[in-house]
Design goal:
A 7-stranded mixed beta sheet has the order 10-9-8-11-12-14-13, sandwiched between helices. The model has no long low-confidence stretch (mean pLDDT 84). It is built from 10 helices and 14 strands. Helix 4 runs parallel beside helix 5. By secondary structure, the protein is of the alpha/beta class. The protein has 2 domains: 83 residues, Alpha-Beta Plaits (2-Layer Sandwich), CATH 3.30.70; 168 residues, Rossmann fold, CATH 3.40.50.150. A hairpin with a 7-residue loop joins strand 2 and strand 3.
């Protein structure tokens, strides 16, 4: 097993985070021990896999070519223990997101729900702020509208590991559709759903881009954890995919991009919905903006 990594400067860390959200299906992740710099790293079973993956990432983020990468050889036991240092359980409301290898040891409080994800998969374990902001918006839904859950519909645009769709099911949604442009993401999402005891028929996962994924569809809650430029490009389509009384949750937004996103979505929300209100929350360097469509 090989660990391939570069030490990032603070100025580039947010840019790399943003790129990794968009480039799903890749092996890269950010790791940081307390008091140390941030490492962009990946683990490979053989040396021949390293260079193609590095070049592909550099095409999405050319600045990475300025850094000097390091490769280390790890024993299998070293790899397993090293990776676990950076994967920890966390809770948002009644949801507890737990690495699969901690399933037997982590106690879920009575009346709350556990979501177990394979920490070795490349599509995220929910620890990133953008995903946590979307999870918080899901929890808001059951807090304020619990009586509608069994009939409400949910769409997870850019589902990645499927964590948001799985969370929606655990919270009580029963009409769930998740899509991603990457076929491997769909495979991973289905696998994660099964490992959480969710029947294949309960969540409809499909390979699709935004235009095809939302074609002819509307939902009571639509989560979109995608980069700001993509959100702006598809603003009208995203707004039209929300039912009256529903919510559009936009994440993958850097805090400094929030006003720019609102300048695009506000006039379109008024055009398509007439009446609405919005809500912004932040975590770290990231923001989530929710547009809530008023019922007629």
């Amino acid at each position: 097993m090989y660990r391939f990594w570069v030490e990032l400067g603070m100025a580039d860390t947010a840019l790399v985070e943003e790129a990794l959200i968009q480039v799903k299906g890749m092996e890269w992740s950010l790791e940081q021990r307390p008091g140390e710099s941030v490492h962009l790293c990946a683990y490979f079973p053989d040396e021949s896999s390293i260079e193609p993956a590095w070049q592909l990432l550099c095409r999405h983020l050319p600045r990475l070519k300025l850094y000097s990468p390091t490769r280390e050889v790890l024993k299998e036991t070293d790899w397993k223990n090293h990776y676990k240092e950076f994967i920890k359980p966390f809770a948002i409301g009644p949801l507890h997101i737990v690495p699969e290898w901690m399933r037997k040891d982590y106690r879920i409080p009575n009346g709350q729900q556990g979501i177990y994800l394979d920490a070795g998969l490349a599509f995220g374990t929910g620890a990133h702020e953008t995903t946590q902001l979307c999870l918080a918006r899901l929890v808001d839904t059951i807090t304020f509208h619990p009586q509608f859950l069994d009939t409400q519909s949910y769409i997870d645009a850019g589902c990645g590991s499927g964590i948001l769709s799985i969370a929606a099911y655990k919270l009580g949604f029963r009409k769930i559709f998740g899509f991603d442009h990457d076929p491997q993401a769909i495979s991973v999402s289905r696998e994660n759903a099964r490992s959480n005891g969710i029947p294949d028929s309960a969540i409809d996962f499909q390979e699709a881009d935004i235009a095809y994924g939302l074609l002819g569809r509307q939902a009571d809650l639509l989560s979109v954890n995608i980069l700001a430029p993509v959100l702006k490009l598809h603003a009208g389509l995203l707004l039209r995919a929300v039912l009256p009384g529903g919510t559009l949750s936009l994440s993958g937004i850097l805090k400094e991009e929030g006003s720019e996103i609102q300048s695009v979505f506000d006039p379109l929300a008024k055009k398509y919905w007439q009446e609405f209100y919005s809500s912004l929350r932040t975590s770290g360097d990231w923001a989530e903006i929710a547009y809530i469509r008023k019922r007629r």
